[in-house]
Design brief:
With about 210 residues, the chain is mainly α. The protein has one domain: DhaL domain (Serine Threonine Protein Phosphatase 5, Tetratricopeptide repeat). The chain has nine helices and no strands. It is globular. The model has no long low-confidence stretch (mean pLDDT about 95). The structure holds adenosine-5'-diphosphate and magnesium ion (2 copies). One magnesium ion binds next to loops. It comes from Luteococcus japonicus LSP_Lj1. This is Dihydroxyacetone kinase, ATP-dependent.
C-alpha cells in the first residue's frame, strides 16, 4: 500500500492542478479590493510545493520532511501574504504527521488544528477579519465536534463553505485588502474561497 508521504505528494499534485484551473477566478476576486494576485500566487505556490514534494519523495523523504520542503517552496514561489501562510500551514501539518507515521483519523484532526494554529500565529487574524481564518477556524471546530468520525469530514467542509460565504458581509481589515476594505463588501474573501477549494479537493480524496 501507499506510504503517507506518497499520498501527501499525490494530494499536493491534485491541489496544484485544481488551483491552476482556478487562477483566473481567484485573481478576479482579489482584484475587487486587493491587488489581484491571489490566483497567480496560489497557482505558483502550489505548483512549486507539488514539484518539491515529488523530488523529496524520490529521495525517500517522510511526510514531515516532504511537507516542510513543500511549504518553503510554496512560500518562496508564491510571495505575498497567503504564500507565507500556506507555507507555514504545510510545515505545521508535516510536524503533526512526522516522518514515520502512517496517518489515521486522529492525525487529520491534529493536522487541521496545527494548520490553523500556524496561520493564526503568523498572521494574527481572528474570525471576522475577512481572511482564510474565517473558513479554516469553523472547519477545525466542526471536525472536532462531529459526533461520528464518518461525519467529521463533511461537517468540516460544510462549516468552511459557510465561513467563506459569511465573509461576503465583512469588510477586510488585514493585509493588502485593507486600504480598499470597503470595496470588499459583497465579495467573499479570496483566501477563504481558495481554502474551501483545497478542502473540497482533500475531502474527495481522504
Ligand atoms: P497579498 O495580500 O499579499 O496580495 P494574496 O492576494 O495571495 O496575498 O492573499 C490574500 C489573502 O490572504 C486574503 O484574501 C486573506 O484570506 C489572506 N490573508 C491576508 N492577510 C492575512 C492574515 N493576516 N491572516 C490570515 N490570512 C490573511
Ligand atoms: Mg493579493
Ligand atoms: Mg500581493
Amino acid at each position: 500500500s501507499q506510504t503517507l508521504a506518497a499520498a501527501v505528494t499525490d494530494g499536493l499534485e491534485a491541489i496544484a492542478a485544481l488551483l491552476a484551473s482556478k487562477e483566473a477566478e481567484l485573481g478576479d476576486l482579489d482584484a475587487v479590493a486587493g491587488d489581484g494576485d491571489h490566483g497567480i500566487g496560489m497557482h505558483k505556490g502550489s505548483a512549486a510545493a507539488a514539484r518539491t514534494a515529488r523530488e523529496l519523495l524520490a529521495q525517500q523523504a517522510g511526510a514531515q520532511t516532504l511537507l516542510s520542503g513543500a511549504g518553503a517552496a510554496w512560500s518562496d514561489a508564491a510571495g505575498g501574504t497567503s504564500g507565507a501562510l500556506w507555507g507555514a500551514l504545510l510545515t505545521a501539518v508535516g510536524g503533526v504527521l512526522g516522518d514515520q507515521a502512517k496517518g489515521d483519523d486522529q492525525a487529520v484532526s491534529r493536522a487541521l488544528q496545527a494548520g490553523l494554529d500556524a496561520v493564526v500565529r503568523l498572521g494574527g487574524a481572528t474570525v471576522g477579519d475577512k481572511t482564510m481564518v474565517d473558513a479554516l477556524a469553523p472547519a477545525v471546530d466542526a471536525y472536532l465536534a462531529a459526533s461520528e468520525p464518518a461525519k467529521a469530514k463533511l461537517d468540516a467542509l460544510a462549516a468552511a463553505q459557510r465561513g467563506a460565504e459569511s465573509t461576503k458581509d465583512l469588510v477586510a481589515k488585514l493585509g493588502r485588502a485593507r486600504p480598499l476594505g470597503e470595496r470588499s463588501l459583497g465579495t467573499p474573501d479570496p483566501g477563504a474561497t481558495s481554502l474551501v477549494m483545497v478542502l473540497e479537493e482533500l475531502a474527495s480524496r481522504i
